[in-house]
Design a protein that fits this description.
The protein has 225 residues and is α+β, with helices and mostly antiparallel strands. It is 33% helix and 15% strand.
Length: 225
């Protein structure tokens, strides 16, 4: 993955504004791959500032044969090589994104990002005396392709606080609280992490973006009474 921050003249971004004034994303039906676009800073209507900054994130299938490469392609090490790689990926892309990449300023930020996950499991002992636990990415790092990681982190904290408060004015049994928290958290986030992984794979293979794919499926957290 390469994450970019670029600045363009406002008139060059008008087509993007017409699509959506916040974010949009898409894929490549010919050679596969995925992009995400977001406006970061837009000047107010009365401003005399004539440019805006945007974020564009690019991913591609990590497999041999992509763009004719013999081996799976990691992001290049050097800045200019990364820029050339993005232009190669987007050489046949439609506008407005295709033109934005072809004219991407050389001083743009091009940051390589490793896509990673941590699959939660009760098989990994990590509780000194059962009094220490983890929440959020520390417990269940997942890819961003379903946009669920932060949501589950919020639920982790909310559930943990509820368990701590359940004892009322009595002292909470921390070991029991940690055990209940982790049991619920693992049951909820382990399938979510699997779904995020598959969503990442599907997003980068255009023919897989269809009904039934975790990339398109409803985001929901189900609880049991």
């Amino acid at each position: 993955m390469i994450n970019t921050r670029c600045e363009y003249p406002l008139d060059q971004l008008q087509e993007c504004l017409d699509i959506d004034p916040h974010t949009f994303h898409g894929g490549d039906p010919a050679q596969n791959g995925y992009f995400f676009f977001a406006f970061l800073e837009l000047p107010p209507p009365e401003s005399d500032v004539s440019s805006a900054s945007v974020q564009m994130t690019f991913t591609w299938p990590y497999e041999s044969g992509y763009l004719g490469e013999e081996k799976p392609s990691d992001p290049p090490d050097q800045h200019l090589e990364r820029l050339a790689w993005l232009k190669r990926i987007a050489q046949d892309w439609a506008n407005p994104v295709g033109e934005l990449i072809k004219s991407m300023p050389v001083d743009s930020t091009l940051l390589p990002v490793t896509i990673a996950e941590w699959l939660p499991s009760d098989g990994f002992p990590r509780k000194p005396n059962g009094r220490v636990t983890v929440v959020g990415d520390s417990a269940h790092l997942m890819t961003s392709f379903r946009g669920e990681g932060a949501n589950h982190g919020v639920v982790d904290v909310a559930n943990l606080i509820a368990l701590l408060n359940a004892s009322g004015t009595d002292a909470a049994d921390i070991g029991e609280v940690v055990s209940k928290h982790e049991k619920e958290m693992i049951k909820r986030t382990r399938p979510a992490t699997f779904n995020a992984r598959q969503a990442c794979i599907d997003a980068n293979h255009y023919s897989s973006v269809k009904l039934g794919s975790p990339y398109l499926a409803r985001r929901a957290i189900l609880t049991e009474e």
